[in-house]
Amino acid sequence: MRVTQGTFSFLPDLTDEQIATQVAYCLRQSWAVNIEYTDKPHPRNTYWEMWGQPMFDLRDPAGVMLELAACRKAHGDGYVRLSAFDASHGWESLRLSFIVNRPAEEPGFAVERNEVDGRRIDYTLHRRA
Amino acid sequence: MNHQPQRSAADRYKAGVMQYKDMGYFDLDYQPKDTDILCCFRITPQDGVDPEEAAAAVAGESSTATWTVVWTDRLTACEKYRARCYRIDPVPGNPAQVFAYIAYDLDLFEPGSIVNLSASIIGNVFGFKPLKALRLEDMRLPVAYVKTFDGPATGIVVERERLDKFGRPLLGATVKPKLGLSGRNYGRVVYEALKGGLDFTKDDENINSQPFMHWRDRFLYCMEAVKRAEAATGEVKGTYLNVSAGDMEQMYERAEFAKSLGSVIVMIDLVIGYTAIQSMSKWARRNDIVLHLHRAGHSTYTRQKSHGVSFRVIAKWMRLAGVDHIHAGTVVGKLEGDPHTTKGYYDICREGHNPLALENGLFFEQRWASMRKVMPVASGGIHAGQMHQLLTLLGEDCVLQFGGGTIGHPDGIAAGAAANRVALEAMIFARNEGRDIMTEGPDILERAARYCRPLAQALLVWKDVTFDYTSTDTPDFVPTATVS
Amino acid sequence: MSETVDLQKAYAQSRVGEVLDQLETELIGLKPVKARVAELAALLLVDRVRRDLGLVSALPTLHMVFTGNPGTGKTTVAMRMAEILRRLGCIRSNHLIAVTRDDLVGQYIGHTAPKTKEILKKAMGGVLFIDEAYYLHRPENERDYGQEAIEILLQVMENKRDDLVVILAGYAGRMETFFASNPGFRSRIAHHIEFPDYAIDELMAIASVLLAAQDYRFSDAAESAFRRYVEARMRQPYFANARSVRNALDRARLRHAVRLFAERGRTLTMDDLVTIGPEEILASRVFAAVAAA
Question: What's the rounded Cα separation, in Å, for the pair C143 and B28?
Answer without folding.
Answer: 81
